[in-house]
Amino acid sequence: MAEGQSELAVAPVRLRDVTERDLDAIWRLNERSVPAVNSLSIKQLRWFTREAEYFRLAECSSRIAGFLLCLAPEADYGSPNFRWLNERYDQFLYIDRVAVDLSFHRRGIAKALYSDAAATVGERFRMIACEVNLRPKNDASLEFHDRLGFRPVGTRDHGYVEVQYMVRPLPF
Q1: Looking at the chain, which terminus has fewer C-beta neighbours within 10 angstroms, N or C?
Q2: Phi and psi, residue 165, nearest 5°
Q3: Cα separation of 101 and 28, whole Å?
């Protein structure tokens, strides 16, 4: 191991489906990631495990490094952001949330999860869609999505938060 590198920097990342036993750790990571993602309950997470088109996590050194949760457009989901996209697009994979533990930032975790989602379920969809906070501004997410080729398609001010909607054609 090179000087200054931690074990986490060189440990391989393993992607796998989220299970019931992961929900407490996923919930804690989600809550640490607010306001970049919305807060949610364990009950809501259980609903996502049943309804999500894609709900996987990245593990590194037996720790949850991050997760990605996506829905199909036919999901019975009341999110105003999901509805906004659903009114304008069809055949899209909706990224409801992505969160990466701070100790794993800038290590390709989110990109690995996005690439895996595109490879795993992407053939069913023409595009992948998400929203990113403009207020409070999430510069890291805006830059990440720009690097992956997402383009802005609209904004919406919810009062407490303003979001930018972004889409990208599939496949990656």
Answers
A1: N
A2: -85, 140
A3: 10
Alpha helices in 42-105 (DSSP H): 42-51, 80-88
Q: Looking at residue 88, which CATH number applies to its domain?
A: 3.40.630.30
Residues 96, 55 contacting (CB under 8 angstroms):
no
d(CA 101, CA 29): 7
Cα within 13 Å of Cα(21), Cβ side: 1
Q: pTM score > 0.90 for this model? A: yes
Torsion of CA 83, 147, 139, 129, to 10 degrees: 0
Calculate the alpha carbon distances from 161 to 45, 50, 87, 98 in Å.
22, 28, 20, 17
Per-residue pLDDT 10s for the chain (172 aa) are: 344 444 445 578 999 999 999 999 999 999 999 999 999 999 999 999 999 999 999 999 889 999 999 999 999 999 999 999 999 999 999 999 999 999 999 999 999 999 999 999 999 999 999 999 999 999 999 999 999 999 999 999 999 999 999 999 999 8
- Asked if the structure places residue 151 within a domain, the reply is yes
Residue 2 lies in a domain: no
Tell me the C-alpha distance between 92 and 99, whole Å: 20
Domain count across the chain? 1
